[in-house]
Prior knowledge:
Layout: E1 2-5, E2 8-11, H1 20-27, E3 46-49, E4 52-55, E5 68-70, H2 83-90, H3 100-115, H4 135-141, H5 152-163, H6 166-175
Parallel strand pairs: 1-5
Antiparallel strand pairs: 1-2, 3-4, 3-5
Helix pairs in contact: 2-5
Amino acid sequence: xxxxxxxxxxxxxxxxxxxxxxxxxxxxxxxxxKKGCNQGACGACTVLADGERINSCxxxxxxxxxxxxxxxxxxxxxxxxHPLQRAxxxxxxxxxxxxxxxxxxxxxxxAAELERGLPSYVTGDLDAETIELTHDELRExxxxxxxRCGAYNGIVDAIRETFGQIAEDAGKREAx
Length: 176
């Protein structure tokens, strides 16, 4: 099986029952993606597959043959952090840091969903040109990622600072 992981072509020969999470951590040595509940309930294992956020503990690695997967190791680099990573630091969006990789990957995926105009459960106007990233909208969209330390206020502040302009910018592009 061949995948592109963080921009690098990777070949792996694993049992067809191997989860994407286990492939990343145990076979490819990428420990940034965390194993939390291993049931898809906590979001610690969130990665981006072809730009969309997924719970890697629920995905079989073979499902991603030929696809592109981005883990936290592929989001920014030491000395060149992604703006969201910098915002997490500035807003204390982490305490123990265990959920942080999943939170960051999920927020990046969420931003892409907003740019595409995908509504959430709490989106008020499904016909709106843009979706405002309100407090409730952001919390609903990030509800699949749990933080046992309770650093939610810093997480929300970091995401809002980094991606708060997405809906407004999308509206300007549509009007042009």
